[in-house]
Amino acid sequence: MKQKFPFSKDIDLAFKNDPPGLWMSAVPKGCIRLNSGYPEPALVPSKGIKEAVGRLLDEEQDLPLHYIGSPRIPALKKFIQQRMLKREAEISEEELLVTSGACQAIDLISRILLDGEAVVAIESPTYMEALEVFRNYTEHFMSVPTDANGLDTGRFEQMLADRKEQGRTLPRVLYTIPTFQNPTGTTMTPERREHVLKLAEQYDFLILEDDAYGELGFEEKPRLLKAMDANNRVLYVGSLSKVVAPGMRIGWVAGAEKLVTAMKWFKKDLDHPFAQATMASYIEGIDFDGHIKELTDAYRRKSSTMIAALKKFLPPTVSWYVPEGGYFVWVNVPGADTAKMLPQAYAAGVAYVPGRYFFLNQEEGTEFLRLSFSYANEQQIVKGIELLGQVIAANVEQKVE
After folding, report:
1. Taking the CA of residue 14 as centre, how many other CA atoms within 13 Å lie in the half-sphere pointing to its CB?
2. Continuous segment of H or E residues that includes residue 331
3. 3-state helix, strand, coil in the chain (%, to 5)
4. Which end of the chain has a smaller Cβ tally under 10 Å, C or N?
5. Domains of the chain with bracketed CATH
6. What is the pLDDT of residues 156-210, one digit of tens each?
């Protein structure tokens, strides 16, 4: 007899969806990984972190290994406040919560704001893991188009006006990655940033600003929505995963004190004191601005290498956005189904992520794919794009015939 368990109705709602991580198929050994949104291995400061751990344990002995943790931990919050102030967002200690990565921050925001009746406005396409989190709490979404300038706020305004006129529920939260978006690599213009904040006031919703890639601008870093937020509409989510080490799981959320306090109720003591202490020890021993420059110089070169290879090896019908920072290039392959094409790419020796996984309605994304220039080295990037070009050309030609 099949055993029944007393799951809550909310868990039953989540189980209606595909399992999380379905998009992350096993990549055959030897494939060039243009699918991986990970830092370049050589840029992960393993030596510096090893030294930080040694310094931490030599100076503090057992303290970092206890529940309460190291006396260094408050310095991590101060560091985060300083980094945000550098980008014109002044955050008090009471408005800041350190989390176990950006995904825990997104989940905590969802727990305190969402229920089965809530509507979440999302970019189309958007970060698939955030979409997985939101689907655990609600089935109601507004999918807002994006273009080369990020979220199409003009279209969003029309959609909001239509919903209001029809008496339909307005969004409680807009989730956006305005800077070096995942998956498209695009950046919202200053005019659109101002517009979306005005819409938040007019239609009374909050904005979840995911800024996981915001430090990785190849030229100037755009102004944060949080820095422009005069009315506490923005919940800002940051992360050190893309600029230090993803396995450390250091993220944070900054927002109105009342909202942050509510998140603390659910986070309770689910900290990683040793990881936070290690990160605090690491950052006290380095020039962080110099570290960020090293990263952006490297990723700028790798992005340029990928764009040049795309121009050289991909058919002329294929197009893409040129990123100004971050990790990703978003590619449109008219006439192809990139999910069905993926096994051919694996057989050829290159991996990517099919675009369908970044859309609420996966039928919208069949002709797109996401490439990452962050993980592979420049030689691998060029070879990988050459192989991908051959696979795409074969599929587009078949379609034409």
Report:
1. 14
2. strand 328-332
3. 45, 15, 40
4. N
5. 25-44+290-400 (3.90.1150.10), 46-284 (3.40.640.10)
6. 999 999 999 999 999 999 999 999 999 999 999 999 999 999 999 999 999 999 9
Rounded Cα distance between 361 and 135, Å, is 13
Residue 371 zone, left/alpha/beta (φ > 0; ψ -120 to 50; rest): beta
| Mean of per-residue pLDDT scores for the chain | 94
Please state, in angstroms and rounded to a whole number, the distance separating the CA atoms of residues 364 and 360: 8
Q: Distance between CA atoms of 180 and 299, rounded to whole angstroms?
A: 12
Q: For residue 91, count CB atoms less than 10 angstroms from its CB and return exposed for 0-12, middle for 13-18, buried for 19 or more.
A: buried
Token pair for residue 206? 């909050």
H/E run at residue 96: strand 96-99
Spatial separation of the C-alpha atoms in residues 122 and 133, rounded to whole Å: 12
Instruction: Look up tokens 């995911």; give the residue.
Output: 210
Residue 200 in tokens: 């938040």
Residue 254 and residue 225 in contact, taking contact as beta carbons nearer than 8 Å: no
Beta strand 150-151 pairing with 173-176? unpaired
CA distances in angstroms from 123 to 51, 194, 346, 350, listed in the order given: 41, 17, 29, 28
Grouping H, G, I as helix, E, B as strand and the rest as coil, residue 99 is strand
Do residues 256 and 232 lie in contact, with contact meaning Cβ atoms separated by under 8 Å? Answer: yes
**How far is residue 249's CA from residue 305's CA, in Å, rounded to a whole number?**
30
pLDDT tens digits, 207-253:
999 999 999 999 988 999 999 999 999 999 999 999 999 999 999 99
Please report which confidence band the pLDDT of residue 401 belongs to, taking 50, 70 and 90 as the band edges. very low
Short-list 98, 95, 112, CA closest to 234: 95
Write the Ramachandran bin of 331: left for phi over 0, alpha for psi from -120 to 50, otherwise beta.
beta
List 280's β-bridge partners, or say none. Answer: none
- CA nearest neighbour of 383 among 306, 293, 296: 306
Q: Which amino acid is at 277?
A: A
Bridge partners (DSSP) of residue 142 are 121
d(CA 96, CA 227): 14
